[in-house]
Write a structure and sequence with these properties.
The chain is an alpha/beta fold and 303 residues long. Helices cover 31% and strands 20% of the residues. It is built from nine helices and eleven strands. Strands 1-2-7-6-8-5-9-10-11 form a nine-stranded mixed sheet, sandwiched between helices. Strands 3-4 form a two-stranded antiparallel ribbon. Strand 3 and strand 4 form a beta hairpin. About 16% of the residues have low confidence.
Length: 303
């Protein structure tokens, strides 16, 4: 299960696969009885500030006011611990076992890429930040031999787009899972002709929370933030940006329209994750895109 939201991991389900007329392979998962347990293991993680429960506590929520005067509602919590719904020791053991298995599979995925001399990147962002558009332009640059493992809850639209641009593509539809895991990616790897590739992108499910917690076997984590989203996302989603090796600011051509502050993004990122690089570009106009290509070329030379 996802330790952040409680959705199901690949273990406990099985994957069905088929091939579309355009050659794109497609894997989708089905939930089974074993995953009922994972669906039920929901956490409410407790905040770092104290408060008293109000009259709405019996509904599972609590409202209180901060010093700044803003009112804040969240699930009932106490400090510095979590209450799983089921037996605590059993719940934690299940989670640790699943995550441990995921990490083992992720290491195997990475070794698989290494054996074939492939650089693998995990692309993460909120929905609509421009991951697929970035991939399309990267593929059309004809600088690399690219394969893409696409992750979405439903449809194979993104895989169709990257295949049309000229890359090998395999679509994974997760059903109810809000992220890819190492097992899903392992399945996708075996649908790519790795001997013909030197670069593989794993386009994760659009989500700024859960994907950051799961190693999928990539060498680098790349996180996109688009101008229309606003420049405050670094501080709002620290887990995601702490995991980033590169942050790409996308849709830079409209940043003035949305009053997007690139300096704020860089400043907040330097505080949170000083090792991460930053590139600002626009995938449609091509402004700044050469920096992205050079980044990929540099990282490939180091493999």
């Amino acid at each position: 299960m996802c330790k952040d939201c409680g959705c199901s991991l690949h273990s406990g389900s099985h994957l069905h696969e088929h091939t579309h007329e355009n050659g794109v392979t497609h894997t989708h998962s089905h939930l089974h009885d074993e995953q009922i347990l994972a669906q039920d293991l929901k956490f409410h993680i407790h905040s770092a500030h104290t408060h008293s429960h109000d009259e709405n506590s019996y509904l599972g929520v609590n409202t209180h006011t901060h010093e700044a005067g803003c009112t804040h509602t969240h699930e009932n919590a106490h400090e510095n611990h979590a209450h799983p719904v089921l037996n605590e020791s059993k719940t934690i053991n299940v989670i640790e076992k699943i995550l441990s298995q995921n990490d083992i599979q992720a290491s195997q995925n990475r070794a698989h890429f290494d054996t074939h001399g492939i650089l693998a990147l995990n692309l993460m962002s909120s929905p609509g930040a421009g991951k697929t558009t970035l991939l399309e332009r990267t593929i059309k640059s004809a600088k690399f031999k690219i394969g893409v493992i696409e992750g979405d809850l439903e449809t194979n639209r993104d895989a169709d787009r990257v295949a049309k641009a000229g890359a090998q593509a395999h679509q994974i539809t997760t059903g109810q899972a809000c992220h890819l895991d190492a097992f899903m990616v392992h399945e996708g790897i075996h649908h790519l002709k790795l001997d013909e590739l030197n670069l593989v992108f794993i386009e994760n499910v659009g989500n700024l929370v859960c994907p950051a917690s799961f190693d999928v076997g990539a060498h680098l984590n790349v996180v996109l933030i688009s101008s229309p989203e606003g420049s405050d996302k670094i501080s709002k989603y620290p887990v995601m940006f702490r995991a980033a090796d590169l942050v790409i600011i996308t849709k830079s051509d409209v940043k003035e329209l949305f009053k997007f502050d690139s300096d704020e993004v860089i400043r907040e990122l330097r505080k949170l994750n000083p090792r991460a690089d930053v590139i600002e570009l626009d995938s449609l106009s091509g402004v700044g895109f050469e920096k992205w290509i050079k980044f990929l070329e540099f990282k490939m030379e180091l493999r």
